[in-house]
Amino acid sequence: MSDKERPRKIPVFVVVPPRVLLLDIAGPVEVLRRANLEQSAVRFDITYIGPSPDVRSSVGLSVSGIVPLPATLPEGAMVIVCGSVDEPLGTGRPQDRLGDGPLEETIVKWLRGSIQPGVELATICSGALLAARAGLLEGRECTTHHSMLSDLARLAPTARVLENRLFIEDGECMTSAGVTAGIDLMLAIVARKVGHATALAAARTLVIYLRRAGADPQLSPWLQGRSHLHRAIHKAQDAIGANPAHAWTVDALANVAATSPRHLSRLFNEHVGMSVTDYVNRIRLALAKELVNGSQLGMEQVADRAGFSSARQFRRAWNRLHDQPPARTRNSG
C-alpha cells in the first residue's frame, strides 16, 4: 500500500476515571468505530488510559484493559476525558464525585502536563471537572451536565460556563453536557475531520437521526429531515450530503435510490416533509453557510462551490431562511 493509500491516523486517548459513566465511553467511541468502518481515508486509533488498569463502572461492570497514562502524546492526538457517577450500581451508597483522591489527582496532574497546543481535548459530562481542576478551561467557553454547572464555574473561575448547550467547541478544547451529548459532540468531530457524509452514515447506523449542533436550538440542516428509516430516501440523502454541489435532479436521485422520480418525490414529501429540490437547496445552504463563516471567499465563489448557478440564486435561497444577507452574517460573526 502506498503512502497515498494509507489512512490518516488520528490517535485517540480515552481517559477512564474511577466510577466511569459507561455511556460516556461507549457512546462517543462507538461513533468513532462506525466512522472507521464507513470510510478508509481517516482512522481513529483508540487507546484507553488511566491511573488504574481496571475500574468499576457506573452500571457495576468492571472495565479492564486500561493502559497507564502515557508520558507524552503525539501531535494531532485527541484526548477524551469521560465522566463518572456518585453512586455506581450495587454500591448502595453515594460516593464523592471528586473522591478517589489519589487516582483522580493523578489524572488531573497528567492532563495539566500533557494537554499542549496541537493536542485536542474533549470532555464528556463531569470529565469537564477534571479538566477544570487541571486549569485547562480557564478563559474558555465550556459546559457540562446541568447538575454540575455551578461546580464547573467554581473550579474554573475565569471560564465562561454556558448553560443549555449540548456541546461547545472552543479552539482545541471541546466540552459536552454529558451522556448522550457526548455522541452529539463526537458526530460533530467526525463531520469536521472526515466529512458530513461519514457522520450521517454513523448516526444512521446507530439509529441516531436527530443530532443537533452544540449551540443551535434547531436541528442541524445536515441532519434535518432524516428522522425516518426509509432506505431509498437515505440513499438519495447520502448522495446529496456527499456532494451538495453536484447538479442533482429528481431523475438523477431516483436512479441513486432505485425508484421512479414520481415515487421519490412522494417519499420525500411524506417522510422528509419537503420536496427533493427543497432538501437539496437546504443542504447547499448549509455548505454555503460554512463557507461564508469559515472562509474569505467571495459570494460568487461560495455560490459556485455550494452548487448554486449564480450568487443571485444563492442569495435568493439564503434570504428564504435567514434574516440577514450572507455578507452581513460573516461580518457579524
Structural features, described:
- The protein has helices at 22-38, 101-114, 127-133, 149-155, 181-193, 196-205, 231-242, 250-257, 261-272, 276-294, 299-306, 311-321, 326-332; strands at 8-15, 42-49, 55-56, 62-63, 78-81, 120-123, 141-142, 160-161, 167-170, 173-176.
- It has 333 residues and is α/β, with parallel strands linked by helices.
- The protein folds into two domains: 8-196, Class I glutamine amidotransferase (GATase) domain (Rossmann fold, 3-Layer(aba) Sandwich); 228-333, Arc Repressor Mutant, subunit A, CATH 1.10.10.60.
- Strands 2-1-5-6-10-9 form a six-stranded mixed beta sheet, sandwiched between helices.
- The model has no long low-confidence stretch (mean pLDDT 87).
What is the total number of structural domains?
A: 2
Query: What level of helicity do the residues show?
Result: 40-55%
- CATH topology of the largest domain: the name is Rossmann fold
Q: Kindly state the mean pLDDT as a whole number?
A: 87
- In the CATH hierarchy, the architecture of the largest domain is 3-Layer(aba) Sandwich
* Main beta-sheet annotation: 6 strands, mixed
Spans of at least 5 consecutive residues with low confidence: none
Span between N and C termini? Answer: 44 Å
Q: DSSP helix count?
A: 13
- State Rg: 22 Å
Order of helices and strands: EHEEEEHEHEHEEEHHHHHHHHH
Order the strands across the largest sheet as they lie in space: 2-1-5-6-10-9
Q: How many strands?
A: 10
Class by SSE composition: alpha/beta
Kindly estimate the percentage of residues that lie in beta strands according to DSSP.
5-15%
Shape category: globular
CATH class descriptor name of the largest domain: Alpha Beta
Keywords: Transcription, Transcription regulation
Domain HTH araC/xylS-type: 234-332
Protein name: Transcriptional regulator GlxA family with amidase domain
GO molecular function: DNA-binding transcription factor activity; sequence-specific DNA binding
